Structures are given as structure tokens and as C-alpha cells.
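Dig into my protein:

:::
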Amino acid sequence: MSKGIIHLWVLVALFLLLITSVGFIYLKYIKQAKPAEISSRIDDNSSSRPLSSIAKQSPSDSPIADSSNEITYEMKVLVLKYFPLTNDRKNIDIATTGDVGVSYSEIRLNTETITKNLAEALNKASIYLGYKNSLAVSSLSYKIIDTKVFEQGVPMLNNGSRKPDYYTIMLNNNICNYVENQGVSEVWLWAYQGPVYPGANAAYLSISESKMAGPFGDISNSWREDNMPKCSKTYRVYTFNYGRGTAEAMESWGHQFEAELRAVDNNLLNLFQGPNYPQTLNQVGRCGSVHNPPNARSEYDRANRTSQKSDCLDWNADSIGATTEISCINWGCEDKGDSYNASLNYMIWNWQNLPGENNDKTFQGKKLRNWWVIHGDFDNVMRNNSRLTL
């Protein structure tokens, strides 16, 4: 073979080696670069998600959310109102209500105002540390989807019990259609308590502040008779007195929420609430209950300006946290009307301290979930035997 041919083959071999090397380098670059490019797009999408895009969902639509998920539960409400009227149909019949005898137009307007105030107060109350975090979102969002007005007294049982006939009231209002097809989870029933029953020191109408019906029975602030129509999803019925205000309606709602929390984890709720009368007992207050704040001397002591040491602002389920002086100054002592008074302000403040969205609390090494999930997604909580810890 001539030297010229040998040189030609050497050049061909070198050319093939060069092409192979370039191809290898290119493939290696593609394999390294592509994941980085994809990752960049994912990060861009996640970081640009606006706060307003936080999911809203109806109860029981999805698995239980943990406290790292920003979910607002839409609580849909059916409002029922019962107004017994005088013969001229201009006034509320005080012979039936016992203490409300104002004009029909006035009391209707009052129920409209309180219904609106209550929905707004509950939205506000479910914002974790909302009194100091203006960017936090509410865990519950209340929406009135229908209102029915009845110009009559509340239908009652005919067995001498003096109790409203909740079963018939719910049945006649087609409650399961509202619950199963329209997403209603609460009924707000506006009524009264009636005059004192003859021969007894009790109101004539023996109402339940709250009742519950559904797959998991009647877990409520009532006699728990479980005697309302059962639908495939849980609903609650609150009976509010239209002779009172938003604070009293909020209290009735709050006792129902306490009943649900106790059913899930009574111990942790007790640790959150602490002693009932910290100031009288000379004990460190915690965050308080619906009735009694961290500086309470007695029942309903929500306008108490005398401070008491409490660890609510640094509440720790495992032990007493750092204490501060707490009084109604923290939530607002003044009475400026139905939507701003010490009782209502306290309950909003109290629940804003409840472990909520994105809380960093733990108990015995376990992270605490968003406790508002208990009310917002009750059926899933019960179905999964969930606790207040994750």
C-alpha cells in the first residue's frame, strides 16, 4: 500500500473520531441542560401564583388538607325566619315571643343586619392571627344562598316538650336538596324563646342553640336527640334569637364549633382554652373559651380591663409559653354597636389565635393541623378519624 493511501486513511480516522467526540459532548450537554430548563419553568409558575388564586372548595370535596395547604372552605347557609304577627300584621306578637314586640319591618331589618354581621365576623374569626397579619386568608368563607320568611310562629312538637319541631321544619324546607345539591352546610333559624312557661322558670320555647344531622350523628350543643332528617352530608341548624344581637348568635355558633373540636380531640382543646376563671383562680390564662377570656373573673367577663398573665400570644400545647398581660384592651373594650363590642370582639380575637392556616405549632412532636378544617370539612375529618395533630 502506498504512503498516500495510508495518509488518507489516517485522515478519515481522525475525522470520524472528531465527529464522535462532538456528538458525545452535545448529547451530554442536552442531558444536563434539559432538566434545568424544565425546573426553571416550574419555579416560575409556582412563584407567580397570586394570593387570590387560593383554592375555594365546598366541604367534603377533597381529602383532608394539611396546614401547609391554603384552602378556604365555602360555608353555604340557608336562612329561615319565623315572625309571629299581631292581627294587623304590622308588629311582632309579643304574646308569642315573650320579649319582642316591635314593628315587623324593624325586626326584619334587624335579622338582615345581624345575618350580614355574623357572616362577616365568622370570616374574620377564621383568619389565623388576623389581628396582626393583614395578608392572612380566612379558612371559612360564609355565603347566604337562600332566605325564607314565614309570617307565623315556630312549628312546635305536640308532645308537651315545648321544643321546636326541627324535623318537620327541615323536611318542609327540603333540606336534603339544599345540602346534597346546593352545598348547604348550615341553617340559620331566626326565632325567639317565648314568655316564661306557666309554673316554671324557663322560656316557653325550649330551643336548641345548635343541632346536627348527617352520616356521623348529632354532635352539637343540644340534647343530641339526632331527630332531624338525615342527608348524605352533615349539616347544622342554629336557632338565633332576633331579640338579641350578633355577639349572642356568634356565641351559639361558637358552642357548636367547640362541640366538634371536643369530639375530635378534647384534650388539645382544653390545653388551648385553659382555666375558666384565671383571674379569680390566680392562674396563668391560656387563650380562653367562648364564654371566658384569659383574664376572666367569672362567666362572660369579656369587657374586663384588668389584665392577667396569659401565654395565648405564645401558646404552646406542650407547656406554658412566654406570658404577657392580657385584657379586653387586646380585642377592644368599647361598645360601639352590634358589629363592635367587647363580647363580639373577644370571640373574634379568641378564634384568630386558634391554630390555623400555616401555623407552626406542635404537640408531642407532631405538627398541629389547621383546626378550622374540623368545621370546614367535618365529614372527611370524621370519616378519616382525623385528630387536631397531623
About this structure: The longest strand covers residues 71-82.
